[in-house]
Amino acid sequence: MTLSTAQIATLGVAWLAYAAVHSLLASLAVKRWFARRFPGAMPGYRLGFNLVALVLLVPPLWLTFEWRGPQLWRWSGGGAWLANALALAALAGFVWSLRYYDMKVFAGTSQWRAGDAAAEEHGALRLSPLHRYVRHPWYALALVILWTRDMDEARLVGTICITLYFWLGSRLEERKLLVFHGDAYARYRRRVNGLVPWPGRILGAADAEELVRGASGPDTESQRRDPP
């Protein structure tokens, strides 16, 4: 049965509300406010952030799989092989990229155990191999997986909302990275696309090393920043 306008609107609002809350809690302004008001709880901020993100993800996901709607397209034949191959390659790329991130820091367990109450995370600018092709490789890999699946109405609404959030969220994230890394990140951003790799916009290994060496500022967070 085709989704009603109200159902489509509800799905869109649910996904966009999730994106808004997620971005707000990830913002440097909110983390600094929390650190001032609740310094004793700050070491658990990242753990709490991840837990809240998972809990808030339940309503839009439940609506997406509960309502579904009619099938819009289903990959078949050679198209299905190609779509699944791209999705598996993206998944493999995600797993392979884990070696370049401190997942304890990403999860928040490292800050909790160390009693780290700083709002800003500290670390040197680092560019993984995938960062030479796109500035936000985890977002890019996730988009490949999302858009290579069979699509019904509800899933399409969610996929469009997530795509918009990845685009906007990456812009918001980069504001922080520009503060932490200054001109080095600005030059990197001018050289490499955000989500879609493109010929002529790929950074060579030597150029990436040069950018990392030229990163300025004593307190930077790319080593421990969110992997996307």
Description of the structure:
Helix 1 (5-26) runs antiparallel to helix 3, helix 1 packs parallel to helix 8 (153-181) and helix 3 (45-67) runs antiparallel to helix 8 (153-181). It contains ten helices and two strands. A two-stranded antiparallel ribbon has the order 1-2. The protein starts with a helix and ends in a 15-residue tail after the last helix. Residues 217-226 have low confidence and may be disordered. It has helices at residues 5-26, 28-37, 45-67, 77-97, 103-107, 109-114, 137-147, 153-181, 183-191, 205-213; strands at residues 71-73, 151-152. It has one domain. It is an all-alpha fold and 228 residues long.
Task: Compile the SSE list and pairings.
Layout: H1 5-26, H2 28-37, H3 45-67, E1 71-73, H4 77-97, H5 103-107, H6 109-114, H7 137-147, E2 151-152, H8 153-181, H9 183-191, H10 205-213
Antiparallel strand pairs: 1-2
Helix pairs in contact: 1-3, 1-8, 3-8, 4-7, 7-8
Structural class based on helices, strands and sheet pairing: mainly alpha
Give the distance, in angstroms, between the N- and C-terminal Cα atoms. Answer: 36 Å
Strand order of the largest sheet: 1-2
Number of strands: 2
Arithmetic mean pLDDT: 89
Beta-strand content bin: under 5%
Low-confidence stretches: 217-226
Query: How do the helices and strands follow one another from N- to C-terminus?
Result: HHHEHHHHEHHH
Helical region count?
10
